[in-house]
């Protein structure tokens, strides 16, 4: 079951411009610098932001982790100018990341009322980042940075004052051998010939989140970004947590591939006809609705775990 809750804020030029990123190269760690503010408080704040460009994809407190901006979209979290060196803006990782807003996921850790990153928030952030790495296995230990490392900003301040906290965090995420472990997804590596492809084993939780989307993309050979792009939001599909909802009607390549398998119109949109066809194929109730915890999604996850859709 996913620990991260995907609850996106509305489109907003100051916080969620709706720009597709250029591909995720790493994770940048932040702190909110807002004593007592919860992850949910920050979701509300950025949903109504005006006058300043700022945001991040994830906010974590001692209770929950909320993803407020789709992982394949830009957030304004790490391209600020803090100082100049030899007349140039200080961006020591520019050659690796380019504009970090376009190439990284921003993770904000919330503070308690005394201004501390509590141990519970620390551990919840570990859980959240492990889930992100299951979606983006290219992210290694060396690809998790502090905001300080990217622009020189004193953020997260407790980890700038005590750099060993970043190393403790990486140890918790990757372990001493440098490999990330995750309770929700794992990579199958059976004792079969090396040419057989590796694939993600999903938690059968009935939630159509980024891990399920990425596995479906892997199955059909489309771009593996964990996002069902350009969907039109309606009551029957609003619980597709991996969906990027907009008004373009462009649809998603992975949904087109699924529609081809199901023998329905290939418009790339997860409409009721597609949902009903999937429900029929997987033997669940044909009501054309993806529920918050959905039987058809559970059936899809089970089928993907066998690496064979019926």
UniProtKB/TrEMBL annotation:
Biased composition (Low complexity): 175-193
SMART domains hit by this protein: Ami_2
Catalytic activity, EC: 3.5.1.28
Domain N-acetylmuramoyl-L-alanine amidase, residue spans: 14-157
Alphabetic keyword roster: Cell wall biogenesis/degradation, Hydrolase
InterPro entries registered for this protein in UniProt: Amidase/PGRP_sf, Amidase_domain, NAMLAA_amidase_2
Catalytic activity line of the entry: Hydrolyzes the link between N-acetylmuramoyl residues and L-amino acid residues in certain cell-wall glycopeptides
A single MF term (Gene Ontology): N-acetylmuramoyl-L-alanine amidase activity
UniProt cross-references to Gene3D superfamilies, sorted A to Z: Peptidoglycan recognition protein-like
Residues covered by region (Disordered): 173-196
Matching Pfam families: Amidase_2
Record-level GO BP terms: cell wall organization; peptidoglycan catabolic process; peptidoglycan turnover
Descriptive protein name: N-acetylmuramoyl-L-alanine amidase
Species this chain originates from: Enterococcus casseliflavus (Enterococcus flavescens)
């Amino acid at each position: 079951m996913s620990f991260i809750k995907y609850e996106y804020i509305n489109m907003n030029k100051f916080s969620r411009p709706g720009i597709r990123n250029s591909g995720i190269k790493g994770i940048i760690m932040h702190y909110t610098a807002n004593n007592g503010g919860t992850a949910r408080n920050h979701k509300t704040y950025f949903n109504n932001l005006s006058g300043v460009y700022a945001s991040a994809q994830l906010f974590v407190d001692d209770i929950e982790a909320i993803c407020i901006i789709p992982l394949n979209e830009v957030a304004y979290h790490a391209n600020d100018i803090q100082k100049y060196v030899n007349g140039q803006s200080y961006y020591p990782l520019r050659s690796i990341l380019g504009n970090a807003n376009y190439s990284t996921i921003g993770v904000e850790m919330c503070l308690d009322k005394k201004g501390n990153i509590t141990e519970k928030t620390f551990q919840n952030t570990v859980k959240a980042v492990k889930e992100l790495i299951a979606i983006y296995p290219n992210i290694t230990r060396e690809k998790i940075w502090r905001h300080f490392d990217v622009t020189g900003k004193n953020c997260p301040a407790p980890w700038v004052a005590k750099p060993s906290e970043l190393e403790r965090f990486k140890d918790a995420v990757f372990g001493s051998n440098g490999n990330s472990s995750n309770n929700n997804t794992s990579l199958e590596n059976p004792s079969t010939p090396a040419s057989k492809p590796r694939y993600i084993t999903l938690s059968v939780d009935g939630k159509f989140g980024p891990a399920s989307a990425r596995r479906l993309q892997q199955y059909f050979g489309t771009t593996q970004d964990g996002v069902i792009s350009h969907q039109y939001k309606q009551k029957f599909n609003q619980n597709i947590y991996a969906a990027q909802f907009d008004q373009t009607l462009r649809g998603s390549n992975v949904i087109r591939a699924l529609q081809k398998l199901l023998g329905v119109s290939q418009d790339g949109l997860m409409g009721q006809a597609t949902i009903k066809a999937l429900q029929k194929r997987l033997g669940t109730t044909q009501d054309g609705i993806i529920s918050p915890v959905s039987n058809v999604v559970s059936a899809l996850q089970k089928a993907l775990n066998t690496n064979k859709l019926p």
